[in-house]
Design goal:
Layout: H1 13-25, H2 30-44
């Protein structure tokens, strides 16, 4: 398993609740949902650090 960086993230309680509902709808943990959102955003912006991800879904 790849090493992951841990950090503290402060969210508005209403945003956290919305994220919690969204994660549940997708059968993910909140952490997994945040990773998915960040990964998707990086790919869409062309800033993904993964070499093979830049050409997927285009």
């Amino acid at each position: 398993m790849a090493k992951k960086k841990s950090f503290v993230l402060r969210l508005d309680p209403d945003q956290y609740a919305a994220l919690e509902r969204w994660a549940g709808d997708e059968f993910r943990s909140i952490n997994g949902q945040l990773e998915w959102i960040i990964d998707k955003s990086l790919k869409e912006a062309g800033r993904s650090p993964k070499k093979n991800d830049n050409n997927e879904n285009k």
